[in-house]
Amino acid sequence: MSKLPANHRFRDLSDYGRIPARWIVEVLKNTNVTPIHVTLLFGIVGLAACYFILVSQMYAAGICLILKSILDAADGELARVKGTPSYTGRYLDSIFDIILNFLILGCIWYITNGSFAIALLAFVGVQLQGTLFNYYYVILRNEFDGDNTSRINEKKSPTAFPGEKQKHVDILYGTFNLMYRVFDQAIYYADPKAPKKQHFPNGFMTIVSALGLGSQLLIIAVMLALRLEHYILPFFVAYTALVPILILVRRYINR
């Protein structure tokens, strides 16, 4: 199920896992497996990727990173198919993502004996890149009645959906806010006019999707398989230059 109506859909380069995710959902939709179970599984697969990086099994690490992307798509897809959206799943998904991003880049830093400063900049860059894509994508989804579990500016804990406990939502929101607030606010203040009925051409969104988490994990997987692990952290530091460039392009489009 798409998050956008047909005329606003774009080719999402980070969403290559959607088709296999739908195969998984077809198998799971009539079972007792919940979207939260799938989210927990992608967390385990992400940790497996970290292990394989540490033991220099780079092909296995790359496969786990791509599988993690597929499962990351499958949990939301399963929630939509079963009609069970939840803030619990939405925040847990994001919390796992940022923790795994930190661990994956940390493992790469460890095995390459690289600069800690470069590793930290790479992590910040990865988060800013993904946040920019999510920011623009959530604006579209909010405007055109797409996924209603994501909000443009997460200022307070939302009201829990039926079937989930408000206490759990509040705890997960607080954790999410602690981890993401600085990145969300950085992008929001860099482009505060973006939510105000701005135009997001499909081609532009396709380019921005190259900054999405799925795209990032695919790049890491390919570079690991090619034994270019020493270049991964510097690459993502440089890749962050696309963030201000794309913001300026969006402003130019809507001038």
Distance between the termini: 33 Å
Report the structural category: mainly alpha
How many DSSP H or I helices? Answer: 10
Output the helix-strand order: HHHHHHHHHH
Fourth CATH level, the homologous superfamily: CDP-alcohol phosphotransferase transmembrane (TM) domain
Q: Determine the CATH topology.
A: Four Helix Bundle (Hemerythrin (Met), subunit A)
- Which CATH-level-2 architecture? Up-down Bundle
Overall geometry comes to: globular
| Domain tally | 1
Which residues sit in consecutive blocks of at least 5 with pLDDT less than 50? none
Tell me about the biggest sheet? Answer: none
The proportion of residues in beta strands is: under 5%
Q: What is the level 1 CATH name?
A: Mainly Alpha
Question: Radius of gyration, Cα only, in angstroms?
Answer: 18 Å
Q: What fraction, in percent, of the residue positions are helical?
A: 55-70%
List how many beta strands DSSP finds.
0
What would the average pLDDT be, to the nearest integer?
91
